[in-house]
Amino acid sequence: EEDKEDESEEEDNDPRQNRAPRRKTLQRKNNDGKTTEKGVSRKRERDKMASTKEQRDSENKEKKTNKEKGKEKENKEKKERRSSTPSTSNSSDEESLSEEELAMLMEQVEQKKKLISTMRNKPWRMVKKLSMLREAQAFVEKFEGALGKGKGKKLYAYKMMMAKKWVKFKRDFDNFKTQCIPWEMKIKEVESHFGSSVASYFIFLRWMYGVNLVLFGLIFGLVIIPEVLMGMPYGSMPRKTVPRAEQATAMDFSVLWDFEGYIKYSALFYGYYNNQRTIGWLKYRLPMAYFMVGISVFGYSLMVVIRSMARNANESTGEGDDENFVFSWKMFTSWDYLIGNPETADNKFASITTSFKESIVDEQESNKDENIHLRRFLRVLANVLIICCLCGSGYLIYFVVKRSQTFSKMQNIGWYERNEVEIVMSLLGMFCPPLFETIAALENYHPRIGLKWQLGRIFALFLGNLYTFLLALMDDVNEKLAEEDVLRNMTHWTLLSHHNSTGNGSTATPPPLDPADVPRGPCWETTVGIEFVRLTVSDILVTFVTILVGDFIRACFVRFVNYCWCWDLEAGFPSYAEFDISGNVLGLVFNQGMIWMGSFYAPGLVGINVLRLLISMYFQCWAVMSSNVPHERVFKASKSNNFYMGLLLLILFLSLLPVAYTIMSLPPSFDCGPFSGKKRMYEVIQETIELDFPLFVAKIFSYVANPGLIIPAILLMVLAIYYLNAVSEAYQRANAELKKKMQMLREEEKNKRNNKTSTNSAMQDLEDIFKPNTKSENQPKQVEDKKIEPPNKSSPVGKQGKAAAEDVGPVNGSRGVALTPPLHMVVTRPPMPGVRTPYPGPRPHGPVPWRGRGYPRY
Amino acid sequence: LSREDFQRIPELAINPLGDRIINAFFSEGEDQVNFRGFMRTLAHFRPIEDNEKSKDQNGPEPLNSRSNKLHFAFRLYDLDKDDKISRDELLQVLRMMVGVNISDEQLGSIADRTIQEADQDGDSAISFAEFVKVLEKVDVEQKMSIRFLH
Asked: β-strands A628-629, A577-578: how paired?
C-alpha cells in the first residue's frame, strides 16, 4: 500500500523527528478528519473546500506542523516539490508571522487548494486520495485564517468563509431549483412507457405553460389588478355597465357562456377600461400601462422563443444527409434506453423489426425502376387536390363568418347558429388532416418527407382558417366603425336632450343619466376580444372532447366489447389509439397564436389559457397512460425540436401583424377602452412623453423619430446581419475543414496501424517508380500541414524501400512546394532494400516493425 | 453489487443488450463490482462540459470524452475484444434485437449491408475507427450523458 510506503519514507527521511509531534499531527489530522468527515463526504460531490470553522492554534504548533507537513508533502506529493521547508523560527512570535513566512504559508495554502481541486484527475488509489484530501483540507482550514496580517487577518478569514458559504449556498439553491421543476416525475413516467418522442411533447407543453404564466403575471399584475383596485367600479360609467336593454338576461348562463352579459362588461375585456390618464392615488397611468404591456407580451414571447431556438441549435450537431449509414444506425442506435416497461419494450422490439423490414423493402424498391412520369403526375395531382381542399375550407369559413354576422342581427337564434363559426373551424381541423393523409398516399414519399409535407399542409390549413377568420372579423370591425359615427352623434344628442329635459326650469345641475341608459357605441375591440375568447374556449372544448371520445371511449370500447365481437378489435380496426404527437403540437402552437392575437383585446384571455394548459397537462398525461399505446413507427425526436420552435416563431410573427395593424391604423372606439377619444392608439405614447417627462425628453424623441435617423439605423442593422451571417458561414466552413482533417488523421493512423503503405497519390507514384510490382490501395487525399503526423512508422524489413519514401511523411500532392523535399530526398538517397539508410533528423534505428507516433521533422 | 442486482433494474432487464451492459460493469472474471468500479463505468456517462476540454490536455483523456463514450459502446458489440465487430457479432446483436420475426437470410443480408456501409478498409469487419465514423453525425455527447441536474 502506498500509504505505508510513504510513511516509511517519511520515517527514513526524518529519523530525527520524534514521534510525538507526528502523533499529534496524526491525531489532529484524525480530529479534523472526523469533524470534517461529514464535510468530506459532502465534498465528494463538490470539488470545493469545506466550510471552515476558524481554528486558531498557537503559533508554535502551527509552525511545527507546518514544518512537518512541509516534509510530509515533500514525500507524498508527486507534483511540485518544495525545496525548502519553511524557515520557521522556533522563537515564539505569537502575534504575527514575518513576511516571508506569510508568503510561503500562502503558497502552501494555494498548493493545497489546487491539490484539492484536481484530486479527481490524479492517478492514485482511492484510499490514498481520501487521506490526501483530508489532510489538505485540514491544512487549508487551519491556515487560511492565519493569512492576512494583523487586523486584516480576521477580515481575510471572514471573507474566505463567506466565499465558501456562498458557493455552498449556490449549490444548494441549484439542487432546490431542480427539485422545484414541476411534473418531472409524471413526464419521466410517460417517457419510460412511450419513449422520448412523446415525452418531448409534454416537455414542450410545460415550457409553454411557463411562458404563459409569465405573460399572465405581466398582464394581471400591471393591467387588471390596478384597474380593479384603483379604477372606477362597475356601474359608475356607461362603459362599465350592462345596458338597460340587456340587463334582463345578463345573468343567464347561456348569455354568460357566450361571453356577453356581465362578463362582457368586466375587466376581462378591453371595453371595460377607462381612458382616464391616471387613476388612483398612485397616479397609475393605466392607458400607457395597457399599451406597453401589450407590446411587451410580444417582445417577451419573441425573446423566449428565439433564445430557446438558439439553445437547441447549439445542441444539434448539424443536419447532414443521413442516408449514408441507414442500416448501421438502425443496428447501433435504435434502442431507446429510457424505456422501463416490459410492454413498451415488446413494442419497441416490434417497431425495430418493422423498421428493419421497411428498410429492406425500401432498398428493394429503390433498386427497382419506376415510372418517373407517373410519379410526378400523381404528386402534382395530389398537390392540386390539396390546394383545392385548402381553398374550399377557407371559403367555407368566410361564408360562415359572414352568416354569423347576419345571425347576430336576428333575434331568435338557436345555439347552433350562435356557435356556427367555431364549430365549423373545429370540424375542419378534425377532418381535414386525415383527408390530407389519404390524398398523400398518392404521392409515395419516404415517410419522413411525407410527415413534413403533412405537417406543412396542416399548418397551411390552420393558417388559412385563422386568416380568413381574421379577414371576416375585419369586415365586421369596419362595419362597426361606420356604425360608430352614426351612434356618436346619437349619443351626443341624447345626452343633450336629457340635460335639456331635466334642467328645464331648475338651476341645479341635472341628475346624471343612469349609465345603463346611455346609448352605447358598438365597441369593436371588445367584439374582437369576445370572438377570440370564444374561439379559444371552443377549441379547448373540442380538444378535450376529442381526447375523451377518440382515445378513452375508444379504448374502453375495444377493451370491453372485444369479447363479443366478430373480429379482433385490438389488432385490427379500430384498436387502441396512438398518441398523435404532431397533431397535438400543432394544436398547441395554434392555440398560442390565437392567444397572442387576442390578448391585446381581451386581457383575461391569457388567464384562461393558463388554466387550460394546467388542466391539459394532467388530463393528457392521464389519457396517454390509460388509453394510448406506444408508437409503431420510429420517430426521431431530437431533430424536430427546432422545427416546432420555428413554427411557433412563425405564428408569433403572424399574430403580431394583425395587432400591429389595428394599433397603427384603426381609430379606437369613442366610448370604450383605455384609448377612447384618441385618434390612434399609439398616441398614448406621445401624450405620456409630452406630459409626464421633462421637456428635453420630448425633444430627444422627436429627433430620434426623424426618418433621417431611423433609415440609417435600419441600414446599419441590415449590414450587421449580413456581416454576422458571413462570419457564421466562415466558421461553419472552418468546422467542416477541421472535421475533414480529423477524419484524414484517423484514416492515416488506421492505415499505418494496418500496416499498409502510404496512401498518398504522390507517394504512390514515387513508389511505383521504385517498386513497380507492388500494389496497394490508393486513397488520394488532400493533406495540409499536419503537425502531429506520425511519419516515423517504418514498415517491416521487407519494405525498407518503401519505408524510405514513406518515412518522409505524407505530403500534400497538390502543393508543389511540399513535394520537392521528398523528391530531393529520394534522389539523393536511392533506397536499397535491406540497407538501413540513415536520414537526417531523428530517425528510428533498425528495422523496427512498429513505431508509435513520432514527431515530424522535415 | 452482483449481476442479479443489476438485472432487477427493469430498464436493463428488458434491454436486448442488457446482459452486455451489465458485463461492462464487471471487470474480467469478477462477479462483484464495488462502488469504485461502478462509478468508473458510470463516469462514461458524465456530460461533457466545455471547460473540461481546455484543461488536462497532458493527462489521460477524461472518461466521459466522446471517444471514450464511443469506445464503451463499441465494447458492447465486440464480444471477443479483438477491436473489430465481425459479421457474426452483428448477427448476434440483430437476433437479440429482432428475435425470430425476420428470417435468417434476411438477417444475414442486413448484417452484410451494415458492414458494407461502414467498412472502409475492406476487412469485412467494423473497426473502432469505422464505428466512430458511422456515429459521427450522432449526437453522442448528449445521448450518452445522464443529466442529473437539468
From this structure: parallel
Distance of alpha carbon B29 from alpha carbon B31, whole angstroms: 7
Residues in A touching B94 (Cβ below 8 Å)? 331
Candidates A526, A566, A41, A570; CA nearest to A270 is: A526
**B78, part of any domain:** yes
8 Å CB contact of A335 and B73? no
Cβ <8 Å between A331 and B132: no
B49 located within any domain: no
Residue A113 to residue A167: CA distance in whole angstroms: 15
**Which distant-in-sequence residues (6+ apart) come within 8 Å of A770 by Cβ?**
A801, A805, A826, A831
Among residues A485, A472, A446, which one has the least CA distance to residue A535?
A472
> Which pLDDT belongs to residue A758?
45
Q: Are residues B37 and B66 in the same domain?
A: no
pTM of the model: 0.61
* Same domain? B34 vs B81: no
Out of B15, B132, B137, closest to residue A320 by CB: B137
The number of folded domains in chain B is 2
| B85–chain A Cβ distance below 8 A for any pair | no
Contact B144/A at CB under 8 A? no
Average pLDDT over residues A347-358: 71
Task: Give domain status of residue B57, yes or no.
Answer: no
Cβ–Cβ contact B94 with A under 8 A: yes
CA-based nearest distance B4→chain A, Å: 17
Going from the C-alpha of A265 to that of each of A251, A268, A516, A699, A761, the distances in angstroms are 12, 8, 12, 40, 84
- CB-CB under 8 Å, A356 with B102: yes
The answer to whether the CB of A309 falls within 8 A of the CB of A646 is yes
Question: How far is residue B91 from each of residues A12, A171, A329, B86, measured CA to CA in Å?
Answer: 61, 48, 15, 9
Task: Please tell me the predicted confidence (pLDDT) of residue A631.
Answer: 64
Query: What region does A429 belong to: left with phi over 0, alpha with psi -120 to 50, or beta?
Result: alpha
A401: nearest Cα among A385, A381, A425, A370: A425
Spacing of C-alpha A623 from chain mean position: 26
Please check whether residue B133 touches A, CB under 8 A. yes
* A720-757 pLDDT, tens digit each: 999 999 999 999 999 999 988 888 887 787 677 666 54
Cell of A142: 487551519
Residue numbers in B near A749 (CB within 8 A): 129
pLDDT in tens, A605-629: 999 999 999 999 999 999 988 888 7
CA distance B28 to chain A (A): 19
> Please, how many CA atoms are within 13 Å of residue A432, restricted to the half-sphere of its CB?
28
Helix or strand run (H / E) with residue B140:
helix B140-143
Quick one: B66 and B129 in the same domain?
yes
Q: Do B139 and B69 belong to one domain? A: yes
Closest CA to A668 of A594, A600, A595: A600
Please name the residue ranges forming H helices in B34-137. Answer: 35-42, 50-54, 66-77, 87-98, 104-118, 128-134
* pLDDT for res A216: 93
Q: For residue A126, give the nearest of B36, B120, B135 by CB distance.
A: B36
The answer to whether residues B36 and B69 belong to one domain is no
C-alpha separations of A34 from A24, A38, A165 in Å: 15, 8, 20
Quote the cell numbers at residue A364: 428493394
B110 touches chain A (CB under 8 A): yes
A318/B142 touch (CB, cutoff 8 Å), yes or no? no
Q: Locate all alpha helices (DSSP H) within A36-80, ordered by sequence.
A: 37-43, 59-76
- List, for residues A187-197, the tens digit of each pLDDT value: 877 876 776 67
Q: Is B147 in CB contact (< 8 Å) with chain A?
A: no
The answer as to whether B54 is a domain residue is no
Residue of chain B minimizing CA distance to A338: B11
Q: Which domain holds residue B94?
A: 62-149
Is residue B12 domain-shared with residue B78, that is, in the same domain?
A: no
Q: Do B12 and B82 belong together in one domain?
A: no
